Amino acid sequence: MTKTAISSLAIKVFEKAVDDYHVHDDINRSATNPFDKKDFEHLLYEKNWIDTVQWHYEDIIRDPDIEPNEGMKLKRLIDSSNQNRTEMVEYIDSYFLNLYKHITPKKDAKVNTESPAWALDRLSILILKIYHMREESLRTDVSDQHKDSCTEKLKILVEQRKDLSESIDQLLEDLSKGEKKMRVYRQMKMYNDETLNPVLYKKDD
Questions:
Q1: In 24-182, which ranges are E strands?
Q2: CB atoms < 10 A from the CB of 80, how many?
Q3: Residue 202, CB-side half-sphere exposure with 13 Å CA sphere
Q4: CA atoms of 132 and 173, how far apart (whole Å)
């Protein structure tokens, strides 16, 4: 696998994960990852599956008639999913840290605004947006105005996919040449940590 092929590889894997999820369209169904655990594709598939399930959590929780207890359960599932998403991004960044560990950055090398894995995170979400916007553009139970609007939005999303893919490949190329420094800063989320969230650690006071 070449460095410049990573964005196109990611798109292919992300699209497969989205398609696989929608075979059953069930938020309770676990992923059946078709890739070997030692392969980079395995990480990409797991990443997008998390994003895809969370996408549907977010849809369901916005039902104005949702029963409050069910809404609270979903909120906790979303919190857990966010944590899993962050951990998976950091795991993917560990792959890139290892990939470029022998590269000595040039003296004038700069740090990018986001790591490779967080850029891939954006690409994963973008693939989901494209899938669902395409669905909306093909609906038969809506007005032509709705379909036309969604078709125009879809064109923009596809253009964004092209731009983001090129940016990811350029970032990886720069890292491989030492023109940019590989930096990973952990998210250090606080709301799920009983020692950092005041609502949780003051509960026993």
A1: 110-111, 180-181
A2: 13
A3: 3
A4: 31
The pLDDT tens digits of the residues spanning 15-34 come to: 999 999 999 999 999 999 99
Name residue, tokens 């409050």. Answer: 68
**E strands in 32-153:** 110-111
Question: Between the CA of residue 12 and those of 121, 128, 167, 188, what are the distances in Å?
Answer: 14, 12, 17, 30
pTM for this entry: 0.89
What is the tens place of the pLDDT at every residue in 121-170?
A: 999 999 999 999 999 999 999 999 999 999 999 999 999 999 999 999 99
CB atoms within 10 A of CB 27: 17
Structure tokens at 126: 């973008």
What gap in Å lies between CA 26 and CA 151, rounded to an integer? 26
Of 127, 120, 117, 164, nearest to 14 by C-alpha is 127
